[in-house]
Amino acid sequence: MTPRVFLLSPARCGGERAALLCSPRAAFDLARRLRTDGATLGEVFTFLSGLYFRGKLAYARRFGVPLVITPDAGLRPADERVTPAALRAAARVDIHAGNPRYRRPLLASARAVAGTLGPDAGVTLLGSIASDKYVGALLDVFGERLTFPAAFVGRGDMSRGGLLLRCVRAGVELDYLPVAGAVRHGPRPPRLTRVP
After folding, report:
1. With 70 as the cut, is the pLDDT of residue 8 above it?
2. Residue 195: how many other CB atoms lie within 10 Å
């Protein structure tokens, strides 16, 4: 059976956390590695985004194959190395459905991925389906095959991250719904109970 492919929505590549990470004076391990040999896209985006991306990455690794949606290079493996220059280039590209600098590489890489999938392979977006930043282009390529976790509807980013990490710990995969025709907005579900 072909493993499920998870498409992880990106972290914001600009801002204070990115400036800290790319600073030549930053002495923490990730910043040093980024400057010397590069660091993986997964660990860089986890640093930039925090709990939500950490949850998406851990969940995707536990239950399938993680691919990260990038602002300027389409779908990339989470273990691909990036440099400060690559991060700065990505920060200059607006993630917007109408921006060809974002949309063209996303469509090209999604088509390449679709061409490698077996007929039973699932494709799940771990990101917001409430906006068309990702959904339009991904639906154009994956169609009915594109799904999302049903439990994401109405839930904020931090709640999604927490939910995904709990699923990883429990070894329990969420239920998925097709994105095509789905209710993309909904009432906020009850808060997650605190983990002792």
Report:
1. yes
2. 8
- Tokens 């808060």 belong to residue: 191
CA–CA distances in Å: residue 118 to residues 66, 88, 145: 16, 36, 11
Alpha-carbon distance of 97 to 108, in angstroms, equals 14
Closest C-alpha to 193, from 167, 170, 172, 162: 162
Q: What is the CA radius of gyration of the chain?
A: 17
**Helical H runs in 37-186?**
41-49, 51-63, 84-91, 100-116, 132-142, 157-170
Give phi and psi for 134, each to the nearest 5. Answer: -115, -40
The pLDDT tens digits for 42-83 are: 999 999 988 889 999 999 999 999 999 999 999 999 999 999
Which domains does the chain carry? 4-11+49-79+95-178 (3.40.50)
For residue 82, count CB atoms less than 10 angstroms from its CB and return exposed for 0-12, middle for 13-18, buried for 19 or more. buried
pLDDT of 177 strictly over 90:
yes
E strand or H helix at 17: helix 16-22
Q: Are strands 64-70 and 74-77 parallel, antiparallel or unpaired?
A: antiparallel
pLDDT at residue 193, rounded to an integer: 63
